[in-house]
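Dear colleagues,

As part of the handover before I leave the project, I'm documenting each prediction I ran so the next person doesn't have to rerun anything. This entry is a single chain, and its sequence is reproduced below.
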Amino acid sequence: MRPLLIAPIALILTAAIGYALCKLAGFDPHVRSMLLAGVIALLACAAGAAPLLLSRRASQPAMAQAGLLATTAHLFAAAGLSLVALMVMHAGLSFVYWILAFYWTTLIGIVIASVRAVNSAPVDRSSAPADVTPVTAGATAGPKQ
């Protein structure tokens, strides 16, 4: 699925733009924190892509559920791995800024891929309501006598 490449490409662009802006402003970009946050965001992106890849040929309702699961998996993977980085590796405040930028960037990519997957999935007609004939004005609801 080509739309799933949006998030990693956006991650690389965000890192390059953020690094350049830090250098232009005279701030230390904290490359170690940037790389750690980038790896965590990439792993979270992979966790978010898994439900979409596993339900590739599903119907629209199933793909909508896969999209919801993809964003949830992305959130929990990013939050859990970030917690590990903060508690075990003692990542600093610069890591928090980088992971926030990377999280939102990759989330946008996951959502775009989810919406495209739902739109390209076949419509499930089995859950659609049966055709009902409309009641016209003046018609009675009871049986004919």
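Residues 138 and 144 are 13 Å apart (CA to CA). The mean pLDDT is 88.

All the best with the project,
I.
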